[in-house]
Hints:
Two copies of one chain form a homodimer. Chain A is of the alpha/beta class.
Amino acid sequence: MAKFIERLDKAASSNxxxxxxxxxxxxxSMPIDDIATFTTAIxxxxxxxxxxxxxxxxxxxxxxIAGLRALEATIRAIPSNIPIILDAKRGDIGNTSAAYAxxxxxxxxxxxxxxxxxxxxxxxxxxxxYSDRGVFVLTRTSNPGGADFEDxxxxxxxxxxxxxVTRRAIQWNSHGNVGLVVGATTPDELTRVxxxxxxxxxxxxxxxxxxxxxxxxxxxxxxxxxxxxIINVARGVLYASSGADFAEAARREATRIRDxxxxxxxxxxxxxx
Amino acid sequence: MAKFIERLDKAASSNxxxxxxxxxxxxxSMPIDDIATFTTAIxxxxxxxxxxxxxxxxxxxxxxIAGLRALEATIRAIPSNIPIILDAKRGDIGNTSAAYAxxxxxxxxxxxxxxxxxxxxxxxxxxxxYSDRGVFVLTRTSNPGGADFEDxxxxxxxxxxxxxVTRRAIQWNSHGNVGLVVGATTPDELTRVxxxxxxxxxxxxxxxxxxxxxxxxxxxxxxxxxxxxIINVARGVLYASSGADFAEAARREATRIRDxxxxxxxxxxxxxx
Lengths: 273, 273
């Protein structure tokens, strides 16, 4: 299997898109009852518009075994050329992280996963050991509590914790399969992370429902080639309509966002070839 | 339902035990093939010796849907008077943490969960909102990488990150349902956390396979009444024998550890009544 970053780049360029759709099936928001029917319709309506899909484990786990069967069906519905980033924020001691990595990559069949850095190097190593899969490390998250610890200045460096995490993530990138998660809600922090991390991919949640700004996320988030920012939108696309036209509405909204991203890329001098 | 801490205290005093058994069913280590048969036998052989069981989600997830069915069976096998601490180390933005909390407490039926603090207050709130359930916050973990970030000194306090997490966890304890996870491998850090957190429960993994010392974990970990330390052992009990006598061997080893803990409690002047 090609490396994750190659598959990501290829999906982005063939669909001319930096948009990722977050698959967060919350039954109370869904226009229909069945999760797999809902997610499959969304995927079929949008798979030529995205560089990745990001299923959120929590929403499937919250429905128990039936929800995890829906996760299986959702993953089967995603075309093989579109990478799947499983949003799971896992991390534990070494042998336990190895079990989580097996679950994500061998059981569910994800191409990449999000992980929490709190427990340090040996909690992340079992994920990066799958050298053809991607590992996105939480760095500066999009939520209000992202400031509680991630922004704390460290005594030895006079830099915030999220910068220390960025520097460690660079060390963890010996297989070239590590990326970072930075919220679209904090553009200055995004700029600092991009300045340090070179051309590593950055997953950017927080556009839309969480209030992140699209233009600054792109201008601050892309690498020196105008690529490697993965702009994730979930609720704004999934729940664009609460009616029977939800899939068409999702397609319209995904097209609008993809095109807005591309307009900004053009403006910045990074058109698709 | 009584509060988690009351159920924990009651199980501890009725079994005269601060021992928790970690249920980490790794097929490569198991003496028999079927996870649910294995975990049920372990539970039946030990449930009068423990104050809690701690199933590790990762080992069940690693076996896919069949593994999660085994988790259901495992949880069903645990007597209702013994609290179940689901080791999952979850944490995400608010609406996603709410889905994880629903999964842990409503789907799987856990009495408590472990959470990661990295994403801050709003990532933990949806768990503590279940006021009758327990929430154990990762503080200073038992693994080598626990030093990478958790030990970093903060500029504003000149204290390590794990102490800042402890202070936040105290703030998060308004429902009286928060505990801390501190590795048995770092006795000095355990002492500092206990000094600050009063009588909050501390979950102590790391005895046995990870090299933590039992006596110092008890003397440094208990509260001023000699209680509220949950000494977790997984591999040492589960895999005490690789033969057909695995359940009897697990019982022997659990008895030995429980009694060693009680000998130390006696020595410290905290006998059971």
